[in-house]
Automatic annotation (TrEMBL), chain A:
Keywords: Membrane, Transmembrane, Transmembrane helix. It holds the Pfam family AzlD. The chain crosses the membrane at residues 6-25, 37-56, 68-85, 90-108. It comes from the Bacteria. This is Branched-chain amino acid transporter AzlD. InterPro entries: Brnchd-chn_aa_trnsp_AzlD. It comes from Bilifractor porci.
Automatic annotation (TrEMBL), chain B:
This is Branched-chain amino acid transporter AzlC. Its main location: membrane. It is found in: Cell membrane. Coiled coil: none annotated. Keywords: Cell membrane, Membrane, Transmembrane, Transmembrane helix, Transport. It comes from the Bacteria. It comes from Bilifractor porci. GO terms for biological process: L-valine transmembrane transport. The chain crosses the membrane at residues 36-57, 63-82, 94-113, 161-178, 222-252. GO terms for cellular component: plasma membrane.
């Protein structure tokens, strides 16, 4: 691609991304009353999306071969248990991540 | 513990000329928001470096990952862009890909419609910098009463974006100099989403009583995603999963929305504007 084509391509990608970000706010401006259905979605979508994001992070993990997803499952278990125990987000994230790094760098190479 | 019962306190400072008060508000919000962005910092700087290295390894100039990190600011799309930019010129397909990859922003927008109400001049920037992580942090944050919400959201958004740009710059300029073993560091993102998911779960009800009724959204999200991941390939399951989630939550709305014990519903009358 030429520099001009690169700029046009990036502009197209920016336009597409920005569209997805602004569309809900354009469709349901703050001055107008938001339809009841959308308010309902605004409340129930987020917990579901958090579940989706967790699965999204694990999309490339193979549970049928290789490490069988053991480092991921063990580390997630540690994150969940430490969070239930201490309710400290940073602590849970740090312990899970450090454990995962140790596992994939030593045991599950 | 109900996530919808927080009273929206009046922001006395917003829109006023009183600069010192506003500066104070801003600084207090920065202090409150910074710790919550630390895991994002670890994840974004690391992924940003990977992105910068990838772009440069494709033979593209090092300023390109920095600029795209700032203006596109969608990690998954930018990794695809590295391939798109070295193939033939198809702006419309690039646009379509961006819409597909960004489709989940629609869900984030709908979820934040209420929280990003009355944000003044910051609103445009808050919407522009919506990302998986920023949305997750801002949506789930329990902002203290004495902290200005608009400044809090603003700082989380700005810091996250700065981490991503800094990572891309580091990767683009000095990526080859990194020698310590970073393998597995990207798990910090997974860990963050797991804790945010757990946090949401506990907000919607603790214990095993009414387990399914209290956590219907969480179950729908997890199960739909797993099902679609099994049916479709790993890089194509997001849109079907979103449609399935939307479909189930719409189909069973009567049941979910009127159930008084469900975490989503109590106090909804009072919340309506």
């Amino acid at each position: 691609m030429t520099s001009f084509q690169i700029i046009i391509t990036i502009a197209a990608v920016v336009l597409g991304t920005v569209l997805t970000r602004f569309l809900p706010y354009i469709c349901f401006p703050q001055g107008k009353k938001t339809p009841r259905y959308i308010t309902y979605l605004g409340k129930v979508l987020a917990p579901a999306v958090f579940g989706l994001l967790v699965i999204y992070c694990l999309r490339d993990v193979r549970f049928t071969g290789g490490t069988f997803g053991i480092p991921e499952l063990v580390s997630i278990a540690v994150v969940v248990l430490t969070f239930l125990w201490k309710r400290q987000m940073l602590l849970s994230m740090a312990s899970g991540t450090i454990l995962y790094m140790i596992l994939v760098q030593t045991v599950f190479r | 513990m109900n996530r919808f019962s927080t009273t929206r306190f009046k922001r006395v400072s917003a829109g006023r000329k009183a600069a010192p008060k506003d500066t104070k508000d801003s600084f207090r919000a920065l202090k409150a928001s910074f710790p919550l962005t630390l895991p994002v910092m670890a994840g974004y700087v690391f992924l940003g470096i990977t992105y910068g290295i990838l772009m440069v390894s494709q033979g593209l100039p090092p300023w390109l990952p920095v600029v795209t990190a700032a203006v596109i600011y969608t990690g998954s799309m930018e990794f695809l862009l590295a391939d798109i930019l070295v193939s033939s010129f198809h702006p419309f397909s690039a646009f379509a890909t961006a819409v597909m990859v960004g489709a989940r922003h629609l869900f984030y927008g709908i979820s934040m419609l209420d929280k990003y109400r009355h944000m003044g001049w910051k609103k445009f920037y808050l919407i522009y910098t919506t990302s998986d992580e920023t949305f997750a942090v801002n949506y789930s944050a329990d902002i203290p009463e004495n902290v200005d919400k608009s400044w809090f959201y603003f700082w989380v958004s700005l810091l996250d974006q700065a981490y991503w740009i800094a990572g891309a710059a580091l990767g683009g300029l000095a990526g080859t100099l990194i020698t310590f073993n970073t393998r597995g560091l990207d798990f910090v993102m997974t860990a963050m989403f797991v804790t945010i998911f757990m946090n949401q779960w506990l907000k919607d009800g603790e214990g095993f009583r009414h387990l399914f009724r209290n956590h219907i959204s969480e179950f729908v999200g997890l199960l739909s995603s797993v099902l679609c991941l099994l049916l479709f390939s790993a890089d194509r399951f997001i849109i079907p999963a979103m449609l399935l989630i939307l479909g189930i939550l719409t189909l069973f709305r009567k049941w979910i929305d009127t159930e008084p014990a469900a975490g989503q519903t109590p106090g909804k009358k009072g919340e309506e504007r």
